[in-house]
Every structure is written in structure tokens, then in C-alpha cells.
UniProtKB/TrEMBL annotation:
<dbReference type="InterPro" id="IPR036237">
    <property type="entry name" value="Xyl_isomerase-like_sf"/>
</dbReference>
<protein>
    <submittedName>
        <fullName>D-psicose/D-tagatose/L-ribulose 3-epimerase</fullName>
    </submittedName>
</protein>
<feature type="domain" description="Xylose isomerase-like TIM barrel">
    <location>
        <begin position="22"/>
        <end position="252"/>
    </location>
</feature>
<dbReference type="Pfam" id="PF01261">
    <property type="entry name" value="AP_endonuc_2"/>
</dbReference>
<dbReference type="InterPro" id="IPR050312">
    <property type="entry name" value="IolE/XylAMocC-like"/>
</dbReference>
<dbReference type="InterPro" id="IPR013022">
    <property type="entry name" value="Xyl_isomerase-like_TIM-brl"/>
</dbReference>
């Protein structure tokens, strides 16, 4: 298991001002960080990749489709073309950063709904776009981890039954799923069964508490989650994902309106120790 931390707890765009927190993350013993890639240029992410490498931190990234006008699932060819261009930009930044995994809900715009579940045509357009991404990722030695979200954030992928079926349709070794305990806590009847069903398609495991605060303080049964992950032979990235109310763009997207951890030191240290101990005990 490689323990990472999603840097959305710090902000939506990581720059030099975040160096003290990055240094502390490295000191505590995290193996890598998951960088939010929401804006900026490949040159910025090349600089950030060098900075993180200098701290001994591996690199991954997380991202979204931010705009319905650049939706890779759209039936409108012009909108779909802008969506594919956004996915290309994602991979430009990933390669500049030196990412080993590219994760997040890069399938449909967040909080965008059609009034129904995904259509067969939308699934087919998504499969085409994500297979093209996977082919490029394989050439550059990284993998994709598409994230399911709960029904209040997307209509496209909510359950592991949907996610496994979609990954099988893409059918590429560089393409898999980011399993998130927060979203699964809402959508699955049993997280253990959900993880078994996803099986070898799980490329990243997001450890996120039911309130998106510090793991171990809430209702998620991480012991069971980690046992199930070990049962399927998973030994990939386990990534702490916790959100705070201090980042306006993130609070708006995730509906976080109150502090969910007292300070970064408590979040970093307590989460690291709990997740390492829970994985070892599982």
C-alpha cells in the first residue's frame, strides 16, 4: 500500500504558497500526493512535479469535467470536441507533473443532470473517449482511475455494478476505477461486496470519511474496507480525501459549509497514523 493525500484539503490550485504544508506531508511519511488539476498550464505542473520530487513525494492527480459546454458525453459534436480537448489538456498536465495515476470524475460535468440515468449513446461516447485516454496513458506509463460519485453529484456512474460494467466496456489495462468510501457509503448496500465486485478494476482507493473529515472519527468501517481490498489482492494507492470549508471553490462543489478538521497538523498526522494502522491490521 502506498499512502497518499488529496491536496484539495489545501486548495484548488497548488503553488509555492503551499510549500510548508507539502514539506510537512513529506515529513510525516506520506508516499505521494494527489494534485488537483483544475486550471493552469503544463509548465506549472512541470514545476510542481519537480518540487514534489525534491520532497520525496510521488505524484498523482485528480480532476473534473468543469463545464457542460465541454462535455465529452454530449450528443452535440462541437460540445463533445471541446470535451475531448479538455481531456487532452488533462493528460498534458499529467505528463508534465509526472503523475502515476490520473483520477477523478472526468466523465461528466459535476452537478449536471439530464433527468435520467446514462443513455446507451452517452456510455458509448464515454467509452470511446476514455479508451483513447487509456491508450495515451499506456504509452506514457501511467493509469487512469475514473471516479464514481453519489447520485446527488452525477447521474453517470454511481455504483460499482455500473463502474465495473463501464470499465469492462472500455476494456484497456490502463483504465480502471477510483473507489471512494464516501460515495460508496451512500450508494452501496455493502462496501465489502462492492469492492469484491469491482475486483481488479480498482486502480485507486479513496479513504474518505462519511462527513469528509478525518478518517476514523466517523461511520465508515475502514477495517472491513481494507480487508476486502486485501482479499481482491489490491496493494495500490490508498489516498486520504478530506475537505475543509476554507476553500470557496471546493466548499461550493462539495457542499461543505463547516470545518471538518481542526487544523492541518491534526488532519495529516491523525489520518496517516489511523490509515497505516488500519491497513496493517486488516
Amino acid at each position: 500500500m502506498k499512502l497518499g493525500i488529496n491536496l484539495l484539503c489545501l486548495g484548488g490550485h497548488i503553488d509555492e504558497s503551499h510549500r510548508p504544508q507539502l514539506e510537512r506531508i513529506a515529513e510525516i511519511g506520506y508516499d505521494h500526493v494527489e494534485v488537483p488539476v483544475m486550471r493552469g498550464t503544463p509548465d506549472h505542473y512541470a514545476w510542481l512535479g519537480e518540487t514534489l520530487a525534491g520532497l520525496g513525494l510521488g505524484r498523482a492527480q485528480t480532476l473534473i469535467v468543469p463545464d457542460p459546454d465541454a462535455n465529452p458525453l454530449s450528443e452535440d459534436a462541437a460540445v463533445r470536441s471541446r470535451g475531448r480537448a479538455h481531456l487532452d489538456w488533462i493528460q498534458d498536465c499529467a505528463e508534465a507533473l509526472g503523475s502515476k495515476t490520473v483520477g477523478g470524475p472526468f466523465h461528466a460535468p459535476m452537478a449536471y443532470f439530464t433527468g435520467a440515468g446514462p443513455s446507451e449513446a452517452e456510455i458509448a461516447r464515454g467509452v470511446e473517449a476514455h479508451r483513447a485516454m487509456a491508450e495515451r496513458a499506456e504509452r506514457h506509463s501511467y493509469v487512469l482511475a475514473l471516479e464514481h460519485l453519489n447520485r446527488f453529484e452525477t447521474y453517470f456512474l454511481n455504483t460499482m455494478a455500473q463502474a465495473r460494467s463501464y470499465a469492462d466496456a472500455v476494456n484497456h489495462p490502463a483504465f480502471g476505477i477510483m473507489y471512494d468510501t464516501f460515495h460508496a457509503n451512500i450508494e452501496e448496500h455493502d462496501q465489502e461486496d462492492a469492492i469484491r465486485h469491482l475486483g481488479d478494476r480498482m486502480h485507486v482507493l479513496h479513504a474518505s470519511e462519511n462527513d469528509r473529515g478525518i478518517p476514523g472519527r466517523g461511520q465508515i468501517d475502514f477495517a472491513t474496507v481494507f480487508r476486502a481490498a486485501k482479499e481482491i489482492g489490491y496493494d495500490g494507492p490508498v489516498v486520504l480525501e478530506a475537505f475543509g470549508a476554507g476553500v470557496p471553490e471546493l466548499a461550493a462543489a462539495t457542499r461543505v459549509w463547516r470545518p471538518l478538521f481542526p487544523d492541518f497538523e491534526t488532519l495529516f498526522r491523525e489520518s496517516h497514523d489511523f490509515l497505516c494502522r488500519s491497513w496493517e491490521d486488516a
